[in-house]
Amino acid sequence: MAFKLTPVTNLPFFSKLNLTKRPQTIPLFPPLPLYSPYFQYSLTRKLPPSSSSSPRSNAVSEQVVESLISDSNQDSQNSPSTPSSSKLVLVIGGTGGVGQLVVASLLSRNIKSRLLLRNPEKASALFGEQDEEKLQVHKGDTRNPEDLDPSIFEGVTHVICCTGTTAFPSKRWDGDNTPEKVDWEGVRNLVSALPPSLKRIVLVSSVGVTKFNELPWSVMNLFGVLKYKKMGEDFVRNSGLPFTIIRPGRLTDGPYTSYDLNTLLQATAGERRAVLIGQGDNLVGEVSRLVVAEACIQALDIDFTRGQIYEINSVQGEGPGSDKEKWEELFKSAEKKSA
Ligand SMILES: NC(=O)c1ccc[n+]([C@@H]2O[C@H](COP(=O)([O-])OP(=O)(O)OC[C@H]3O[C@@H](n4cnc5c(N)ncnc54)[C@H](OP(=O)(O)O)[C@@H]3O)[C@@H](O)[C@H]2O)c1
User: Fold this and answer.
1) What is the pLDDT averaged over residues 134-147?
2) pTM strictly above 0.85
């Protein structure tokens, strides 16, 4: 059954919901085609305090998100409270539309993540109290190199960067948080601070970045968003780090406002699950944020996506879900088409 929700541009979804105070088990994600397993928001289980906190860490603790259904593609088969994946994924922009889905999916896969956020409070609102072994939160703004303390990158094996701001002036530009500052300077600062041992950085960019002077992209680029995203991309490409760049079309499926969590969750299943991937910046269309989040996570583990740039759209129909082989086929077929 379809639910009508209102996508908004400035509100992270769940922002109106105080999940941490509800003494019951709430399914945070339904059995989504893209998110099998879904996971549950367990507010009852206490975990022992962790000893490995860094001074800047603001990890929320003591409660845990549990995976309810095992997934063939899951990194871990162990207890959901004990991450056994060797990955530690640093997510930047983890409270944004794509980012919150990335983080939720990493939690559901039992992969340890670390967030770098301007406002760590947002993480507790979105993800509840988590064991520090699963989710760590550091305060930082990518525009400030001094915020990118080496301790933030200690042990990090993979990075997913989904930061961004609005293409046109808005409240989100307050404090000079413009595309130039976020998509160019922020990405440059971040990449400059990353350790060379990193196994992969996935950068979420945008379709149209190579054509920002051409219509219709020049309209979107009136305040430079595509130009600055391309500069960020180029910095990543020239960094020597193993990278994958994902360029989404126009994003759908969130962020949402909703007065009812279950309604919201059903809506996030979305209808656009069939995935189109291209190369060469020729793809024009829309893509579900769920699909983009999944593509970022899949790319971490698919060797041949290293050093590649992909455009991504999604359309109505069945999609690859979290099936690694299907994603490999999709990424591979994009490369063949552009060859
Ligand atoms: N909207 C579209 O149709 C579209 C199309 C193509 C590509 N994209 C790109 O796709 C990506 C994901 O989009 P989205 O709409 O899901 O993202 P979003 O909701 O706009 O989230 C952006 C995230 O970046 C964070 N951020 C902003 N400035 C920051 C800074 N200076 N330091 C650290 N974090 C900062 C935000 O956190 P705060 O809470 O601190 O602001 C937020 O978590 C973005 O790069 C976007 O530009 C969007």
Assistant:
1) 97
2) no
